[in-house]
Here is the input.
Amino acid sequence: MGIFVDREREVKTIVDFIEGSSNQVLHITGLHGVGKTTVVKKALSETSAKSVYISSYDSKTHILAEKSINERADDFYYLFFMDRYPFDMEVESSFLKMMRKFAEENVSVVVIDDAHFLSEFGAQFIVYAALSEELKIIVVTRKDLYNKSIIKNAIERIRRENLLGEMHLEPLAEDEIVKIFREHLEAGISQDYIKWLLDCSKGNIHYINFLLKGEINPDISIPEKIKEMYMHLGNEERKILGYLSLVRKPIDIDAFVSLTSIEEDKILFLLDELSEAGWIYEEDNSFFICSTEIAKYAYEMLDEKTKIELHRKLGEYYLSTGDIRSAAYHFKYCDRERYIETLEKCAQKAWESYSFSEAERYYRELYHLTHKNEYLKNLLEILLFSAKNREFGELISEAPETDEFNILRVIYYARTGDIRRAMKYAVKCSNGDDLKIRILGNIWMAYIFRIMDLEEIAQDILQKSFEESKRINYLEGQIYSKIYLGLAKYNLGDKNGVDDLYYALKLAENTRLRYLAAVNLTDVLIAENRLVEAEKILMDMLAEARKHYMGFEEKLIVMNLAYLLAKKGLIKEAIEDFLELKEYLEERNYGFLLAQVYARLGDCYQWADDYETAMKYYKKAFETAQEYGYPKLIKSSYLKVKSLREKAGSIKTQKELG
Here is the structure.
């Protein structure tokens, strides 16, 4: 549009961010067409800082043709928006290479527009770069797409590190629209005309531009002229519009030839015809459809047979380029079997890359479509791993009472404090047909005995479970056995339990169980005042959890880091971390951990001599432990409440006597 109106304050904020703010990332959001990109480009023009602009609509970054990927093997920019993840590429070395590239080119500012379309790689890089504090990053997203995007977790992570600045752009106001008119028309403007423009555009700068040029009717609908012109288009032109209406992003010539099997010269001729007629426009040898309304109209005008054909071709095309997410989207409308097949690949990829919310969504869809137990099991495992206890509890009733599901029931009921049911299913599993299930059943039975403060019984079961797991080379069984065996020994006064926990951490090096091993080991190390050892392990694990957006694992590590802060005397900081963790666990109904956090908060407030608040949290720990059936915590919380009451009474007596 080329018009800049009354955004001086926003421009100054961006310039200040680039030149002096302590924040590393500026997140700019607003509705589509509100002027976000224009404001950023205006700000960049007013600073001497060298910048790189990356957008999903930049043909240099959003590569669709397979050959283009091969030609740009050393250029990582396309990975920001490419769904296909470079599995043969070590992620951190890729980040380092990109950072070196920016440094060599003296780039100090990276702008990522349309960041709601970012890939997992792009989102992880933003966090990495922000924490390095070597680059300023401006992230631009649409308000309506942000909440469902991959970038959301990255932004929340940066916000927690206090490295984030935020700006929301509102639509234009009446005086700003007047200013736009004066840029276009050197004449007076009636208030009625301004009111009409405001009503039609809702302050959206793109719609205002269309209205001024007469390209759309006041109801933002397709002009009758366009509808009439569509009826004169040939089948090939309609198919090209159909592809663009489905893709909703730039398509280059190579992609068109691959999709349509039409010769390149003819494709170019047809595209030129459509461009001249106002259907599409070209930028950097890629083609876009003019608006979402035109895209919607072009799609609606296709017959069902053509729609199915286009979806199938696009699905096959995206599958050939490795973009399985887009392939699944298109197969959904034309081929149920291939939709399920590609959806399963999406789910596996999400699970392997720690994108649990995505994996959950895919497995839910797979289970909804097929009602297969294998998808239900995967979904339940993700819910359990993500600590989504309410969702798990609602869904587990649909699962059959087989060994593979019963072991999940044991873990769920043990974690949420239903000891009777947990023991019932643990016994079932310990008598199951599969040896590994029997081992896990015994391990979780021992876990329940530990909750009941029967450490000697638990120790015997766990020692046998470890030996049996080692005999059949069952790694998961060895790790679980060693973790709970080490804790049982330590609680019985045997300091060798620490060695068992270190052994478990070493065994779990390449599995997700290393978080469980690390948390339990560092819990004991902190209790033993071996704070340096504990801090090193926790910081390493925290970096790993945050790299993969492992929210629940991060919270486990934060719990022990907060306790470590308290042991160092940093009580205020520890309380802040525990309160944040408390909210997270309360929301997810994670009973046992919540009781522990209440108890730790009680400790912190007691060390801060705030006995009234300490008493409140000890009582909460007691009540929560009682509700979920944890005798050991019930006992310790009760004794702390009793001791604190006596201490508070003694202090009161001394004050009265004084």
Q: What stands out?
A: The chain has 34 helices and eight strands. The beta strands are 25-30, 51-55, 109-113, 136-142, 164-169, 251-252, 280-283, 286-289.
